[in-house]
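The methods section describes the discrete structure representation at length, but only in general terms. Since the whole study asks how a given chain folds, the encoding of that fold should be made plain. An entry of this sort, consisting of the sequence and the corresponding backbone structure tokens, reads as follows:

. . .
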Amino acid sequence: SEGSAFITVDGQNRYFFEPSKIEANIELRVIAKKLLGHRMKQHKTVGAEGKGSITMYNVSPAALAIYQEYIKTGKTPQISIQTTNEDASSTVGKRTVVMRNCILAKTPVAYLEDGSEDLNTVDTDFTFDDVDELESYVLPENMR
């Protein structure tokens, strides 16, 4: 539970949401083909896709503005999401990853509920086209 995340829109760091949970994965696309002389199908990686999900709260009005711009002009901004895992009590340091060309599948427009005292959270999926690890964990102190 130690870490942070922020979003960059068109090159500017912006307050966009408070993250509650972020999960992102790279999924390989694999084709299978039975070749002559082989009894088992052979497999080949033919591409990759970045997919993720996020639970967020305190979504800023900037989120809706991005969707409104797309609806009205057809233009979508370049969005990156950067996450940092860091636990001050750990000896492995921190890990920072940035996912580029992100598209969030949905953003809240309105939500009202009369019986809830919980935080207003939104779950959405997202895709990304590129990823860079800016900083990586190191070996634990007892293994160095």
Summary: Residues 61-73 form the longest helix (13 residues). The mean pLDDT is 85. The first strand starts at residue 3 and ends at 9.
